[in-house]
Amino acid sequence: MPQIDFYILHIKHNRQEKERFVCQLTDKAWHQGYRIYIQTGFISFARHLDAMLWTFKEESFLPHDIYPDVSSSAPIRIGYTAQFCEGMDVLVNMTETVPPFFEGFKRIADIVDDTPQAKEAGRARYRFYKERGYTLKVHEINR
After folding, report:
1. What's the domain count of the chain?
2. Nearest to 7 by CA among 69, 74, 105, 90
3. Distance CA 87, CA 75 (A)
4. Peptide bond just before 2 cis, omega within 30 deg
5. Which of 20, 47, 87, 133 is the most exposed place for a label (fewest CB within 10 A)?
6. Residue 6 within any structural domain of the chain
7. What's phi and psi for 131, nearest 5 deg?
8. Rounded Cα distance, 88 and 106, in Å
């Protein structure tokens, strides 16, 4: 059963802080030896996150690609479809739904914006996991 962590982002100014947080979380997980799959909802957002992973930190390199567009064995993959990416340990969910393949991961990091729509969708995902008996942790992130 995967460990599920909800990250509630309270962002005051820069809306790109969500993406920066995801880059930092991915960087930390990768340095801990995990293979990470970041689920976005759109190809345009996957490409935006792809660019951010190259530039968010000058001294760091995060080997990644966009799945399923590129066939590789990169330890970090960014997806935008409902297609399951095998061999990954951590799912970073940046969508407002529970990905249908969530049970294929050891850990799930569910990212929730500090907007009414995102909070409501986050609550629905929280209830979904809770009703199925998963242990959930919530982290309040202030930026």
Report:
1. 1
2. 90
3. 9
4. no
5. 133
6. no
7. -65, -20
8. 8
